[in-house]
Design goal:
12 helices, alpha/beta, six-stranded parallel sheet
Length: 361
């Protein structure tokens, strides 16, 4: 096999067998397509993994150093001629990119997956980001936002002068593995699903408080199943206990079989305070399950209020209570098949195709 290109992909993304998500499927598909096109890929992850297709990867693992230092150590101790260096989940505009550009004659592409705080960064941090943009952005050839929201955030963070370097490539999901709901959604007492990392910024505490304020007659048959784990789980369970909502909320923990689970539900709830471009929203819609969420990040780029889901104001617990009341009683319902949009615009195949195009420039 004649290798046309040799690329490095640096991912500050922990590989967990019990939490296989959309990015894992992207990495597996991207690696496969690269090999088919005679593109050699060196992957840099923070930990070793063999589940899924990771056993076929040429992975160089960061043992006791940061993902950035692991890559720098690698290029200093090995003779490599990377045509492209691509980063995922790595902080933008830092000295790392200057070091890589100085050592290698390569094109550097930085993919931004990071959400921003609801009310923006504090003043000092905003100033520091602007300075970093001026100092280090010149060492990155292209910035990729995973939504238009993210692309705009890069400009806002580091400076409008970066506009010629920025492109949006939407995240995508593996459609064929997601089982679609074929039965009609329940118009009365629908079953709700939450798929989320359990941390404060995901707003699940708002959902618990909104449910608390529902009429007792509506709580009787209400069911909300929560998939996910995280550092805020105890606080959420304590809040459920405080308001005696055990019969409603069922915390299942992480699951590797969510793609075959969505279709058992009628709506997904995502009351998040900050987001970039949610893969769980894409997966839910691909399963023909509408989404009830907030207007943060790129959510409104895929969820249209009243068409394939509902949007309520972030942190507005009263508004969420009113919306839940309307959906539970059947006063509001989504009739549309939500899968078609994801098939045509947010598939993992399209995401991979667009990332492969970056290697041709």
């Amino acid at each position: 096999m004649v290798v046309k290109q040799h690329i490095a992909v640096i991912c500050n993304y922990k590989l967990l067998e019990n939490r296989v998500g959309g990015m894992d499927y992207f990495f597996w598909t991207f690696n496969k397509k690269c090999l088919e096109q005679n593109v050699k890929v060196d992957w840099f992850f923070p930990n070793t993994a063999t589940h899924g297709d990771y056993s076929t990867f040429n992975s160089i693992i960061a043992e006791s150093v940061s993902i950035e230092n692991n890559f720098i150590n690698h290029i200093h101790s090995n003779t490599v001629n990377y045509t492209h260096v691509i980063t995922h989940f790595v902080e933008l505009c830092t000295p790392f990119f200057k070091t890589v550009k100085k050592k290698l004659s390569t094109k550097i592409i930085a993919v931004d997956h990071n959400p921003r705080p609801l009310n923006g960064y504090p003043l000092i941090k905003r100033i520091k980001k602007k300075i970093k943009g001026r100092l280090y952005a010149k060492h990155t050839d292209q910035f990729i936002g995973v939504s238009d929201y993210t692309s705009d955030a890069i400009l806002n963070d580091f400076g409008g002068f970066l506009k010629p370097k920025i492109k949006t490539i939407y995240n995508g999901v593996l459609i064929k593995d997601i089982v679609p709901k074929t039965k009609e959604r329940a118009k009365m007492n629908p079953k709700f699903l939450v798929v989320s990392h359990l941390r404060f910024s995901k707003g699940i505490q708002d959902l618990i408080l909104a449910v608390k304020d529902l009429p007792e007659t509506l709580k009787k048959d209400l069911s909300i199943t929560v998939y996910g784990d995280g550092p805020y789980k105890k606080e959420l369970l304590d809040l459920v206990a405080m308001h005696q909502l055990h019969s409603i909320f069922d915390f299942k923990g992480s699951s590797a079989t969510l793609k075959a689970t969505y279709h058992y539900f009628d709506y997904m709830l995502q009351p998040t305070h900050m987001e970039c471009f949610s893969l769980s929203i894409l997966e839910s819609l691909a399963a023909n399950i509408p989404v009830i969420t907030t207007p943060v990040g790129g959510n409104e780029e895929v969820v249209t209020n009243g068409k394939n889901g509902y949007i309520f104001k972030t942190k507005d617990i009263k508004a969420l209570t009113v919306l839940l009341n309307a959906v539970i009683t059947g006063d509001k319902s989504i009739q549309e098949d939500t899968r078609h949009l994801i098939e045509t615009e947010y598939s993992i195949d399209l995401m991979v195709e667009n990332h492969l195009k970056l290697l041709k420039k």
